[in-house]
Design a protein that fits this description.
disordered C terminus; rod-shaped; 25% helix; 4-stranded mixed sheet; 3 domains; 6-stranded antiparallel sheet; 6 helices; 352 residues; single chain
Length: 352
């Protein structure tokens, strides 16, 4: 097809004669002579044939361009273009989420290319590859038809959606993970002055200047102190994506502010060893379940999408976390979704 989406005949009509293209205009004629004992010789002339190949070839050559024009006119340019135009519009796929409002996978076509006809064992296949702007949004995109772009050329490979999307991880996820593993725990260390005992009563977590602050409400029993020391110890760290691509954690944790100098001098070693190790071990949240759930929801939504004239099938998408930044209310993760899929014209559309 050309860039205007019209089928184009590429080739030159050829012909060959399957029988002799000639006419016998004079038959074979013989004249005999009787010479007695000397014999009966004959003199023959003919047949004389008139060759028509050159004349007919000239006539056929004159009509070859007309043959090409006739075939080109028989190819349904307007009919094909109108069918493609009817399908050239955005697609919005609703993705229902169990514990939240639905989101929409919006696919807006921007360019197209054509593979030509590809021979396969069961028949002929053609592939139209569409480049599209894809996004996950709270609202569906308008789906009215749009003007067709110029048509380019492509291979007949499978389609693939490669979507960069934004996901949020509430601070409560990390806070709950830390609380589950640290709240109520006692940490002890022997010092020359006696035993230092620190109990974690509560855990808090919030954003601050591009970092994540972890607050530990502690109750400490220090050597030589009759009353327990209580208050908050704060640590600061940076969120990161784990190598698995499915988990987030807080790295580079360091102490920011403490209760008072006397307390810190007595408990510093305990905090920088046991307590910090406990924080680092439990400041990771694996989002594999959430990612798998999102993948299943997207695949189900794609398979359930009803687009008149199109049949859509897809493989299970893969989702990988790329990076994460600190937001005012949530950790904001940038993720990549990849999904192989096929879009085929339905039989009723092709038959029209």
């Amino acid at each position: 097809m050309n860039d205007k989406w019209c089928p184009v005949l590429a080739g030159t009509p050829t012909g060959r004669w399957v029988s002799s293209a000639s006419v016998e205009v004079v038959g074979k004629n013989c004249l005999g002579f009787d010479f007695g004992n000397l014999g009966h010789p004959q003199v023959c002339a003919g047949p004389i044939n008139l060759g028509l190949a050159d004349v007919l070839n000239g006539q056929i050559n004159d009509h070859r361009s007309k043959i090409q024009d006739a075939i080109a006119k028989a190819l349904p340019c307007d009919a094909l273009r109108s069918k493609v135009e009817a399908q050239w519009h955005a697609i919005s796929i609703k993705i229902d989420r169990a514990d939240s409002t639905p989101v929409y996978l919006n696919i807006v076509p921007t360019a197209a290319s054509f593979s030509g006809l590809v021979g396969e064992a069961q028949g002929m296949k053609m592939t139209v590859r569409v480049a599209a702007k894809t996004s996950l949004a709270a609202e569906p995109v308008a789906t009215q038809s749009q003007p067709l772009p110029p048509l380019g050329k492509t291979s007949a490979d499978r389609s693939q959606a490669d979507i960069t999307l934004q996901a949020t991880a509430p601070y409560g996820l990390l806070s709950a993970e830390l609380s589950k593993n640290l709240k109520g725990r006692d940490f002890q260390q022997q010092t020359p002055a006696g035993t230092v005992d620190v109990k974690i009563d509560d855990v808090d977590l919030y954003p601050s200047a591009g970092s994540v602050v972890v607050g530990l409400k502690v109750q400490a029993k220090l050597p030589g102190k009759f009353l327990n020391t209580t208050g908050w110890v704060y640590l600061s760290g940076l969120p990161r994506v784990e190598k698995t691509g499915t988990a987030i954690s807080i790295s580079e944790l360091h102490f920011a502010t403490v209760l008072d100098n006397a307390f810190w001098k007595a408990a510093q070693s305990l905090f920088e060893t046991q307590i910090l190790a406990g924080l680092e071990a439990h400041s990771k949240v694996d989002l594999n379940k959430q990612i798998n759930d999102a993948s299943d929801e997207i695949l189900k939504a794609v398979h359930n999408t009803n687009v008149p004239g199109l049949k859509i099938s897809a493989d299970t998408p893969s989702i990988e976390l790329l990076d994460i930044t600190v937001g005012p209310k949530n950790l904001i993760a940038r993720a990549r979704l990849k999904m192989n899929f096929d879009m085929a014209l339905s039989a009723d559309l092709v038959g029209q």
